[in-house]
Structure formats: structure tokens, C-alpha cells
Amino acid sequence: MIDWPNVTASGRQELGLKPEELQKSKCVLGFIPVIYYSILLCVGVPVNILTAVALSRLASRTKKALYYYLLAVTGSDILSQLFIIFVGFLLETAVFHRDVPALLLHSVSAAEFAANHASIWSTVPLTVDRYVALCHPLLHRQISYPARARKIIAVVLMLSLASGVPFFWWSDMWRNSHPPTALDTVLIWTHVTIIYFLPCSIFLVLNSLIIQTLRVRQRQQRCQEECGPKSAPPRRLGKTTAMLLAITSVFSVLWAPRTIVVIYHLYVSSVHRDWRVHLAYDLSNMLAMLNTAVNFFLYCFVSKPFRGAVRDVVLLRGGPLYPRRALPQQQAPTNASISSLYSGNKHRSQRDSTPLSPRRARKPS
């Protein structure tokens, strides 16, 4: 850790600095955040675009609501990368040093929070859909279809956009020297509730119910195997459920440090005055933004159909909307010709091709 020396009274007069400038904490990381966010943007945006194309193919091919929810999560991640990383961190902070008109600064802040809320809350309908599918399968068949999924996604995006409006008055933690006001307290608690406490509570409850349901089913199947005749093998944790648990767990881990630092800034020590809090805030933001680029690798690790769709996109292959089925008219001549290569007997060739194109047996006269 680096211990920055305090400025003496004589040094203050020589430098001619204001009291609020003397108390301002220094950025320990230097240019590391700029390099990190540049790499994250150059990797994350193409990866998320590839993910969106692959998921759109799977959605059109399978007509499952699951892929529409994942597509909404990916689109929200792209918006977060563009508004928060590119516009917020790189342009406003690194290039212009936030020396831009106040109206533009606050407008971008509201857009950043709206994109952030959309990225997080797009995962909630996915979690609810998986819970209904596993715990209430008959109900899931009735209520889960693409048209309803698109309506739910539209509602989530509109609510996320509306929830970003109050953060037009969000204060700059790095540069505001005054203690947090009553408005800052309300906005900070609203922020951590929307982005962490409320969604994590939903994830925890629904994932716990999903895991408990799967455990009960496994116990019932074991009892049936021991007491009665052999039945189907015990149902394991599905890949879709495993992917959901991975997405929500990674989000909970990566966003926890930022939530803690923001509350610490509110009640203990300010980011503007304490370089340690400043360092923790920078690192926690870097971890939180990493969440916008890791879902692609989780999908590839868990889902075989997703890997196949990505392979088709990378190789510029237009995958068929439905599985190809060979027609009997196309199979018969091929098999007949192959059979004729192995046998010169004309009757044998006809006999090999007969099962592929059966004819009605004539009734004896």
C-alpha cells in the first residue's frame, strides 16, 4: 500500500491550493483503469455482438422464450458497455476529464444507470421462467412462449429507462468535496437496492426453491428405485439451470464489492478525501463492469447448442431453421446406385432399393 504524505501549512501557501483540493484523494492506479476498460471494451463488445447473433438464430430456430431472455440480457450488456465504459469512463473521464457541460454530464449519468438497471433486471425474468419450468412445468407450457417473453422484456426495458431518470441528479463521488447530502443518501440507497439487494434477493429465493425441488425429486426417484421396479435414472441438474445459477452467482460476486464501497463512502469515509476508498471504488467498478463480458464464456461452457450456433456464425454458415431430413425420393437412387457398385446383379439392386420406396401390394384377383 502507498502512504501519501500530508501537505504542510507552508506547502499549502506555496502551492496556492484550495482546502477542498488539498483534501482530494489521489488515483493510485494511474492509467491502469484506462487500459483495463479499453481492453474490456475491445473484447466485450465484439463478444456480445457474436452472442446476440448466435442467440437470435437459436431463438428463431427453437421458438423458446429462454433465448429471448438471454438475448435481452446480452443487448443490455452492450448498452452498458457503450454508455458506462465507453462514454462514461473513457470519453468523459479519461479524455475530457469530465470538463463537459453539466447538462450533458447529468444526461449521460441517467443513461448509464438506465442501461445498468436493464442489464441486471433482464436476468430476473429469466430466473422466474426457469423457476416456473422446473417447479410448475404444466403452468410453464401455458404461459411461456416467445410473444409473452417479448412483452415482458419490453416492460423491463421501459421500467429500467424510467428508473434511470432520478439519477440525473447523481453526484460525482470522485470530485464532490462536500459530505453526502440527503438527496445523495436517497439516491445511493435507491441505487444499491435496485442493482443489488432486490435482484439478489429474488435470485436467492428462486434458486433455492429450484435446488430444493430438484433434491426432492432425486429423493423420490431413489425411493422408487429401492422399493419398486427400476425406473428412469435420477434427474440431474439441467444445463440451463446450471447456466442460470452461474450467471446469478457471478453477478452477485462481482457486484458485491461496489455495493459495499458505496455504502462505506456514504457513512464512513468519502471517496474524494480518502485514497484508500478511492482505490477500492476504482477496483470495485472494474470488477462490476467485468460482468458485462463474461456471459459469453458461461454460455459456451454450458450450452452445446450455443457453441454450435457460434461456430456457424464464425464460419459464416447459415444454419437451417429446422433439422434437415433426407427425402425418400433422394435416398432411393443413391442407395440403389451404391448397391449396384457392389453387385452386378440387377435383381439385387432392385431388392436393396425396395424398402426405401415401398409399393402397395396388389390384391390377388
UniProtKB/TrEMBL annotation:
GO MF annotations, alphabetized: G protein-coupled receptor activity
Membrane topology listed for this record: Multi-pass membrane protein
Region annotation (Disordered) ranges: 329-365
Gene Ontology terms: cellular component: plasma membrane
Sequence intervals crossing the membrane: 34-55, 67-91, 149-169, 189-211, 244-267, 279-302
Residue ranges with Polar residues bias: 329-343
PROSITE patterns recorded: G_PROTEIN_RECEP_F1_2 (PS50262)
Coiled coil (UniProt feature): none
InterPro entries: GPCR_Rhodpsn, GPCR_Rhodpsn_7TM, Orphan_GPCR1
Domain G-protein coupled receptors family 1 profile: 47-299
Compartments reported by the entry: Cell membrane
Gene3D superfamilies tied to this protein: Rhodopsin 7-helix transmembrane proteins (1.20.1070.10)
Keywords: Cell membrane, G-protein coupled receptor, Membrane, Receptor, Transducer, Transmembrane, Transmembrane helix
The UniProt record lists the keyword Acyltransferase: no
Pfam families hit by this protein: 7tm_1
Name of the protein described by the UniProt record: G protein-coupled receptor 142
Species, as recorded: Seriola lalandi dorsalis
Organism taxonomic ancestry: Eukaryota, Metazoa, Chordata, Craniata, Vertebrata
